[in-house]
Amino acid sequence: MLLLSFFAFNGYAQENLNFGKQKEIISPEVHENGTVTFRLKAPAARKVEVQGDFQPAGSNSAGTDRMVLNADSVWTFTTKVLPSELYSYSFIVDGLKIRDPNNVYLIRDVASVVNVFLVGKGIADLYKVTDVPHGTVSKRWYNSDGLKMSRRLTVYTPPGYESTKENYPVLYLLHGVGGDEEAWMQLGRASQILDNLIATKKVKPMIVVITNGHTINSAAPGESSKGMYKPVMMTPDVFNGDMEQYFPEIIKFTESNYRIKKDKANRAIAGLSMGGFHSLYISANYPNTFAYVGLFSPAILPPSNNQQPIYQQLDKKLSIQAKNGFKLYWIAIGKKDFLFKNVETYRKKLDTIPLKYDYVESEGGHTWSNWRAYLTEFLPLLFN
Amino acid sequence: MLLLSFFAFNGYAQENLNFGKQKEIISPEVHENGTVTFRLKAPAARKVEVQGDFQPAGSNSAGTDRMVLNADSVWTFTTKVLPSELYSYSFIVDGLKIRDPNNVYLIRDVASVVNVFLVGKGIADLYKVTDVPHGTVSKRWYNSDGLKMSRRLTVYTPPGYESTKENYPVLYLLHGVGGDEEAWMQLGRASQILDNLIATKKVKPMIVVITNGHTINSAAPGESSKGMYKPVMMTPDVFNGDMEQYFPEIIKFTESNYRIKKDKANRAIAGLSMGGFHSLYISANYPNTFAYVGLFSPAILPPSNNQQPIYQQLDKKLSIQAKNGFKLYWIAIGKKDFLFKNVETYRKKLDTIPLKYDYVESEGGHTWSNWRAYLTEFLPLLFN
């Protein structure tokens, strides 16, 4: 068969072929009942463990589970029934943390790359690609005069954007200190959440603009002229005020490049962790701009640059923001979040301003599991 | 420092932090002189090798290089000087092939995920993101009435598209049997090549539409309702004629959704391997549609469905195509390509039709290295 030689010959792909010599290894295998089986062929290994954020299902204190070697030299472990979620995991082979070679679905978080899988029949059904109309996701560059560089954005336009003449409301969605303009799509499953919730009419069709909050960078690692460097979390721009100061450039770009309803009632801003901090200060400094503000596990921490006017007279700014009025000021945090107390203190401040907020206290900590869930709760509240 | 606790606490990111306890491992390190050093910390390993497409720099017949353990439990290997290229590689630890945990830059090819790095000062400078104006890259869905599904495309619009009212020429760019609508951007570095060549005016600003040539799929693995399955290369749609038959839907979608110059002189089609086969039959079956045709290592193989009218009377169709006229019929193949003889036979057929073609014979085989290079050679020939 010529076709067979075609497939056999096709460079790297050779290793993907299976001529019946050995059983194809499927890992992870998500079973109907919500248990998950991991498999790794590693004949020379002495000890293989799996480590993931589905643990402490983990059978030991290190939060790992031992995998068991079967007759085919395949190490195997099956979890207990897992709640619906997007999970990540690694294997540990004789102390070395590796990716699952049979799972091509990977997500980068700062300098770590982990395998992921979805367990459905619950909240993670919103994180799946389903057969509903899909929005368009674009990587696009805007010019920042203030930061003196061209910078990359991710823009979601909803189904129907291209086939109608309508104007749409807009949500600016900001990432945390480890993220960039890719994080909300990759780790946050934002386009799937939007597609799925817009399809069931639980969420109004809207444009979502996902920015890069590290103002020394023009784009995510590997996507700028800095090349393929090893990503770091800590950059000199963190809490220095540049993101907040130059945010109006992003609004201006968005409103002059997309069909946007350009009024406060149709403008929302939300962010997680550092992006919650940014959303707080952006909405306070431009206090008549956003009708909707979402602070997801906001990093209420001292700014690194106290001299920045952006960070001064916060109480006064919040007071003006409150007087100007808004539709929703929404705060969510997990009970185990290390920022819980900081957010509690901030809520007390808001009570004294007073600035009326909605508050959601969830289980868990400072995790993408919470931020995805917060997004699914926050979006239906917008533009009603 | 509160900020420090913020970074230390940040979930998965913890493993990315380095509090001075151990030296940060950089791998790969691309040196100024074009050598590359790989490093892997694996104290328990007995044998560590590196395997990549930069070999046969490989020191043994398996095309691997042994890495050497140094005093810090870090295994190390430095290559000889490498020609400029985008390379991929894996580590092999005691027989187990793994990714480099210090390199977050990964590319999927069918079911394999490999690490990549760039060596510059040559052709790969075109594969780098540089500080030139960037086009917009969108993931967008069109409705296929013929295939009865919504399907995903990657669309590149050039710098200036959004800020002018101009119409643009269009290139339809097709992938091989292992690919999908992501392959030309991920493995092919198409957006970088386009940005860089448009910036130096070597290439006319154009819209590039990258399709998914597996007609049983609506999108790349993980991007459709089929979920996160293990990708396979062989699907029942290969060479069955559906891609060619329903291609006019894609042209229609493109021309009604983008500012396109809608005439033959401004329409090009090109593809690699299976996509070259598709481009051949699409341009022959719609023989007055494309002024430019590019066949990159085309998979000139018997169709799987000989009954398909698309595949019948090829000589007659080519003859009509030749008589209708065109600007360029461009064929490129590597001397070591397993399809070399098939392409030679096809060229003889074209000589007898006659259909005048341009022919480039390169070194090497059926590889992305060639396809990236062919794209850089083909693009400047378009729309002049």
From TrEMBL, chains A, B:
<dbReference type="InterPro" id="IPR050583">
    <property type="entry name" value="Mycobacterial_A85_antigen"/>
</dbReference>
<dbReference type="InterPro" id="IPR029058">
    <property type="entry name" value="AB_hydrolase_fold"/>
</dbReference>
<dbReference type="GO" id="GO:0016747">
    <property type="term" value="F:acyltransferase activity, transferring groups other than amino-acyl groups"/>
</dbReference>
<dbReference type="InterPro" id="IPR013783">
    <property type="entry name" value="Ig-like_fold"/>
</dbReference>
<dbReference type="InterPro" id="IPR014756">
    <property type="entry name" value="Ig_E-set"/>
</dbReference>
<dbReference type="InterPro" id="IPR000801">
    <property type="entry name" value="Esterase-like"/>
</dbReference>
<dbReference type="Pfam" id="PF00756">
    <property type="entry name" value="Esterase"/>
</dbReference>
<protein>
    <submittedName>
        <fullName>Isoamylase N-terminal domain protein</fullName>
    </submittedName>
</protein>
